[in-house]
Amino acid sequence: MPFAGTALVIIGVFLLIMLLLSVKVIRPYQKGLVERLGKFNRILEPGIHFIIPFMERVKVVDMREHVVDVPPQEVICKDNVVVTVDAIVYYQILDPVKAVYNVSDFLMAIIKLAQTNLRAIIGEMELDETLSGRDIINAKLREELDKITDRWGVKITRVEIQRIDPPKDIQDAMAKQMTAEREKRAMILLAEGKKEAAIKEAEGQKQAAILKAEGEKQRQILVAEGQAEAIRKVLEALKMADEKYLTLQYIEKMPELAKYGNLIVPYDTEALIGLLRILQKVKDAPIPEPPKGDSERAVPQEEGSSLTPEKT
């Protein structure tokens, strides 16, 4: 009886171990490759699976995107300049069967393949092209790697060149060249600034001269219009004035003009003589007596008011 109990316990433990060994859990980002008796049998998707213990074995493959660092290496450019280059490669396994069974160590294979292709790509480029063409190198290297890793079930998603370091003497020469370029650019910008300032100043002076000329033009126009208006009004007044009145004004101005020793020549001798005769008649004519009845209402006349024009 004790022997039977011990056997049952052993059998129970054996079954429990077998149960634990038969359960396999695949994570969401994994896939499982089941080998039965040394031969590929099937692929396990994420979830819980049961296998035959001791007959089947599971290889778990991570399907997430990974990054691998390509160690620095010295590469000779087309113009015989040695540069130190390193890079990083992003990859993702698309086919776990090919990644496991078509290459023994695809990670090391990717690194060696990247170094080889870097030497080939940079060897066809000069130093200046290498320093300024990182995007071109990245694209070519990713294309070359992707062609080869496709049969491994691996997709190269991205390649990034981290650094391209030329020798120390070339770095010093490049630093001096960059300093000279910056100084040249600063001098050009300074000269352009002075040129722009001179142009702006000249344009300002031009605008000021134009505005001043236009102001002077407007002033002269206004003065001329004022003079024309004055002349027009004088001419209108002269048209309305009596010829005799004008002759009288002419005679009154003659003494004033004679003060400065001017020689005065009458412009219309006949009119002047006629006016003098009229004035002589007015002066010799007797002053009429006012009516007696009206003498009290008569208003005293001022001196000179007796120069009543003769009726003609």
From TrEMBL:
InterPro entries, per the entry: Band7/mec-2_domain, Band_7, Band_7/SPFH_dom_sf, Band_7/stomatin-like_CS, Stomatin_HflK_fam
| Skewed-composition ranges (Polar residues) | 303-312
In this protein, which residues make up the domain named Band? 21-178
Q: Kindly state one GO CC term assigned in the UniProt record.
A: plasma membrane
PROSITE patterns referenced in this protein's UniProt entry, alphabetically? BAND_7
State where composition is biased (Basic and acidic residues).
Answer: 285-300
Pfam families assigned: Band_7 (PF01145)
Keywords from UniProt, A to Z, are: Coiled coil, Membrane, Transmembrane, Transmembrane helix
Source domain of life: Archaea
Family classification: Belongs to the band 7/mec-2 family.
| Full protein name | Prokaryotic stomatin
